[in-house]
Amino acid sequence: MIKRTRGEKIFAVFNVILLSLIGLACLIPVWHCLCASISDPITVSKTRGLILWPKGGVTTIGYAKSLQNESLLRGYVNTILYVILGTGFGVLMTIFAGYGLSRNLLFGGAIALFLTFTMMFNGGIIPTYMVVRSLGMLDTRAAIVLPTALSVFNIMITRTSFKSIPEGLMDAARIDGAGHIRILVSIVIPVSKAIIAVITLFSAVQIWNSWFHTAIYVRKRELYPLQIVLREIVLQNTSQASDAGEATSELNQLHAIIRYCVIMLSIIPMLFLYPFIQKYFVTGVMIGSIKG
Amino acid sequence: MPVEITARKKPFRQRLRRDMRENWVVYLLLLPVIIWYIIFCYLPMFGIVMAFENFKFAKGLFGSAWVGFKNFQKFFSSYYFWRLLRNTLTLSIKDLIIAFPAPIIFALMLNELRSRKFKKSIQTISYLPYFISMVVVCGMVKTFTESTGIFSQISQALGGPKELISNPGSFHGIMITSGIWQGLGYGSVVYISALTAVDHELYDSAKLDGANRWQQTLHVTIPGIMPTIIIMLIMRVGHLMSVNYQKIILLYSPATYETADTISTFVYRKGLLDGDYAYAAAVDLFNSVINTILLVTVNWISRRKSETSLF
C-alpha cells in the first residue's frame, strides 16, 4: 500500500469522526425516547432538552398505563391482522404476477407495460377515494388492506429473480408432465426463498407503518390500526380519557412519558427484527437497483 | 420490412392458439393482478374526468354537469394559488439542493473508510431511521421542536424563535432535516452499490499517474457513479411538485400554513376534509401535469447532454 500523505491522514481522521457523529445522530432520538419512557413523569415534564439517561428514578408506570389503554391494544391487534392479511394477499399476488411475467407469454410485454405505466401516472388521491367509496369499501377492513396491497416495484424484482432460475430445472419437471402450478409450487418458490423474504418484508413494514389511507377511508374506531392510535396520542395529544377531574390531571402528568412509551412500544418489535430486516432489505434494494 | 418479419414468425393466430393452449394457467394467475390494477389504478385515472365536472357524488361520474376548465380557473384566481405554488416549489427546491446530495456524500465518505467493520456498523445504524414509521418520526420531531425540545432550546439560546414547530420560518428546515435523518442511509444504498461497480483498474492507473486520493475521487469515483446520480436526479426533478405531504399533514398547523401549506396538502384538505371533490381533483391534476412535463423535459435534456436517461 502506498503511504498516505499528511492531508489524507487528516481527512481519514476527520471522516471517521464525522461518520461516528452521523451514526450517533441516528441513534440519539430513539435513545432519548427510551430513557424518557422509563423516567419519572413529573421530572420529564419539567425537563428541557435531551434526556440521555432515565431521570428521577426508573419507573415502568408509563408502560403499565399504556398497556391498559384499550385503543392502543386494539390498534396493535388490528395492525397485526392487517399485516398478516395484506402481506399474505400481496405476496401471493406478487408471486403470481412475477411468475407470469417471467414466462414467455405472447402478451407478456403488454401486461408488463400495463403495470409499469401506473408507476408513471396515477389518478391521484381524490379519484382513488371515489373508487374506494363507490365500491362500498369505506369503513371496512378491506379498505385498509386492499388498495395498497400490490406494488409494481415488488412485482418487477420478483420477475427478475424468477427469470434467473435456470430453464433446465423446469424443463426436467415439464418432461415429467408437471404443469405451471406444479412447477411454481415445487421448483420456483422453493429456490426463490430469498426474494420472497424480501417482498414479504417490504410489504409487512409498509403495512405496519402506513396511516394515511386508513385516515382517509376509515372512521370507525374499532378498525383503527396502531399508527392512527399513535397519531392521536403522540401528535394530537388526545389521550382519550376520562371520567373524573382528578384522574385527568394524573393522566396529564403521565402523558409526558406515555407518549414516549407508546413510541417505544411501536418501535420495539421492529428493533428485535432489525438484524433480519436490514439484511434482506439491502438485498432487495440491490436487486431493485440492478434493474427492475 | 414488415413482410420479412411476418415471414420469419408464424402467423399471429397460430401463435395465439399455442400460447393459450400452453399458458392459459399463467394468464389465469395474472388475471386477479390485472383486475386489481384496473380497479385501484386505472379506474382512478378515468375518474380524473371529475376535475372537469361540477361533481356530485349522488349523480356520479357520468351524471354530473360538465363545466370544462372552471375548477382550474377557480384555482388559478384563488387567493391561495401563489402561496401554494411558492411553498411547494421552495420546499421542493431546497430539498433538492440540500437533501439530494446528502446520501451521495455519505456514500463517498463510507467508501473512503479502511475498516470494513466500522463501515458495516455505520451503514447498519444509518438504515434504522428508515424503518421507523412516519407517525413516530413526526412524534419525535414534535418533541424536539416544541418549546421544551432540544432544538427550540438551542434556538432560544441563540436568540431565535421560542418554539420552532409553530414558527412558519422554521418549517422547511424541520422538514428537510428530519427527511435527511430518516432517508440518509436508505438513499445511500443505491450509490454504495454503484461504487462497488467502479472498475478497480481505473484506480490503479490513476495511482500510476500520481493522482492522490482526492484526485482519484474527483476523476475516477465520481464519474464512475455519475450515471446513477443522473438517473436519481431525473426521478427527483420529475417529482419536483410532489412534496412529502403525509409528513406535512402530521406536522403542520394553521399557525404554519403560511409556509407549510402546499398543493398536495391543500388537495387533501379541500377534497377529503371539506368534500369539494371536483375542485381538489382539478388542483391535483394541475400538479401531476406539471410533474409529468418536468420529468419528460429533464429526461430529454439529459439524454441529449449525457446519454443517460430514464426512458
Structure description:
The complex is a heterodimer of chains A (292) and B (311). Chain A is mostly helical and 292 residues long. Chain A is built from 14 helices and no strands. Chain A folds into two domains: 1-59, no CATH class; 66-291, MetI-like fold. The longest helix of chain A has 47 residues, at 245-291. Chain A is globular. Chain A starts with 5 loop residues before the first helix and ends with a helix. With 311 residues, chain B is mostly helical. Chain B has two domains: 13-66, no CATH class; 71-306, MetI-like fold, CATH 1.10.3720. Chain B has 16 helices and two strands. In chain B, α4 (70-76) packs across α16, α8 crosses α13 (245-251) and α10 (171-196) packs across α12 (213-237). Chain B starts with a helix and ends in a 5-residue tail after the last helix. At the A-B interface, α1, α4, α5, α6 and α10 of A face α2, α6, α7, α8 and α10 of B.
